[in-house]
Amino acid sequence: MTIAPTPGAAPPRAERIQRLAFVVLIAVLALRALLLPVLAWNSRYVMDEYTQAAFPLYIPMGFYDGLDPIKTVLYVYVFEAAHCLTRHAVDLLHLARMEGTLLAFLAAGATFGIARRLGRSRFEAWFAVAVLFSFTNFMERSFRIRSDTVAVSFATAAVFVAVGGEGPGHAFLAGLLAGGAFLSTQKAVYPLAALGLAFAVSGIGCLTVRRQIARLGAYAGGITGALLAYGMWFDLRNPFRVLSMVFLSPLHFAPLHGNPFYAGIRALYVAQTLRRNPVPYALAAIGLALVMARLRSAPPRIRLAAVMASIVALLVFLHEQPWPYVFVMALPFLSVFAPGALSWLETRAPDRGPWVRFAACALLIWQLPRNFAYLAHDNGVQNEVVEYAERLLGPDDRYFDGIGMVPTRYLAQPVSWEALVLEGVRVELARGDDRSIRHILDSRPKLWILNYRVRELWEYLPRLLDPSYVRVHPDVLLTGAFCRDARPVTFVNRWPGRYELFRPDGSPSGEPWRLDGRETGADGFVPAGPHEVVALLADGPSYLLPVGTTFFMPLPVTSPLDDLFQGVYD
After folding, report:
1. Reported pTM
2. What is residue 521's DSSP assignment?
3. 3-state DSSP: the chain helix, strand, coil percent, rounded to 5?
4. β-strand 497-502 against 513-515: which pairing, if any?
5. Residue by residue, what is the 3-state secondary structure of 228-286?
6. Residue 201 CB contacts under 8 Å (≥ 6 apart), including other chains
7. Per-residue three-class SS string for 301-340
């Protein structure tokens, strides 16, 4: 005889534990979901984020038509939204980071959808997302202002569509999305190729040869359609000219292969991600290994997702420069298989299945201290430098820093001093060839930001910059001249504009001065080129600087330079 449970009676112990596990799981997800935008807003910017946040400035110049990008530029149009919303540099960076955060949540949503389409329960699908959020790489890198951020959102959407059905329509749409990932960065050839191989493998023994060919053709057609649309957007008459540049531009990076600068990067950051994330990697690896062990008998959708995850993870971990944000490209696909580890552990201890779930959910909390510690990587000093530099620059003024740290202003020359380029400039300067620096100076930079790329060449730059610039901030050189007293000073002006004298405390002196033998009054226009300047009534040091200059601190600035990018990958 079965006795009905008394209304209001406590549920069985196993059910209570399972409910508790679900509560813990949702708490982990909620906390990390709230923490992700906080990390995005606060954490220190990587140098490439400034460069890529500034690229929308160059859209009017015409990509592939006078301005030839080395990388595909679909991501530029994504981050252009931040430029449309504000013209304040730091606000722009924050808004672009929030765009990146939204894309991270979209990737997490696609991860949930993939898990559900692979037959996982809601609890297991949420667990996959919780594992994804438990990776420090995802929590600390997924929101970056980078092409990779956009590519990951396209790639996860492509796999979500691919596991939704076996027809050519799904394959075609997946190809379009995979093509979008590739057009955001050529590095996304990894998920693009992996998904193509997954389509080929998943259909073996399940689909007829005709259906398999149709599906692969549809996937290739989707990619081709995305590429053609990209080429026609930039050159309607000759899209293949654009596409040839897309595929040939990676040759620019060929000299980087084997470069000593990058030696050890793979070992360093692969070891770092494994050391910091043993639990989520173990869960994902166990689940994926279980599927791969019975791949032949697995349903086509699971087979496709497993092959995709395996290949992408392999390619990402073997990538020559796996900076911490690169791993984000593989993490959503690995996380999908983490629930499989739960199922395996539950079968090993069937009487303790609820405890397994509870323990697994609880383990995902242990990396939270690391996430909170990452908040100490604040970007206060960087934002201070950017804000001050932007305040000194008019809308049409240019500057230089080898990076592009003010995303609302143009660089004097649109060149990034990456490691290989910087080394080339150093070699030229060492043999007395300063044409590259003079070319920058001829473009009339009003100021220089003294980040590490500029400081790398500092043994050669003072003789070129000292006659033209004054240090007005620990990290900023501004066009101007230092007048020690009333004796003549040579000022090689790089920025034509109105200048006036300032006292060391930062206040305008209002005193007259002489330019090339002609008295100017309180302020006057100084053309580009070498000039003789005399502070007529000076009874102490004074500074000839652009009219309206405001100071961060009294002059002369003698405080040490800030290391603006120290520890960004720690």
Report:
1. 0.92
2. E
3. 60, 10, 30
4. unpaired
5. HHHHHHHCCCCHHHHHHHHHHHHHHHHHHCCCHHHCCHHHHHHHHHHHHCHHHHHHHHH
6. 303, 304, 307
7. HHHHHHHHHHHHHHHHHHCCCCCCCHHHHCHHHHHCCHHH
Token pair of 398, please?
Answer: 């240019």
Give per-residue pLDDT as tens, 344-354. 988 887 777 78
Alpha-carbon span 553 to 502, nearest angstrom = 13
Q: Which long-range contacts link 388-393 to residues 24+ away (Cβ below 8 Å)? A: 388/473, 388/476, 388/552, 389/447, 389/449, 389/476, 390/88, 390/89, 390/90, 391/550, 392/446, 392/447, 392/472, 392/476, 392/478, 392/546, 392/549, 392/550, 393/446, 393/447
Peptide bond preceding 556: is omega within 30 degrees of 0, i.e. cis? Answer: yes
Tokens coding 289 = 């290994």
The more confident residue out of 365 and 1 is 365
Cα separation values, 59 from 63, 64, 226, 316, Å: 6, 10, 20, 30
Phi, psi of 566 (to 5 degrees): -75, 130
**Alpha carbon distance 488, 206 (integer Å):** 87
CA angle in degrees (0–180, nearest 5) for 565-463-508:
80
State the DSSP code for 46.
P
Residue count (the chain): 570
- Mean local confidence (pLDDT), 429-447: 96
Q: Which residues contact 88 (CB under 8 A, 6 or more apart)?
A: 390, 408
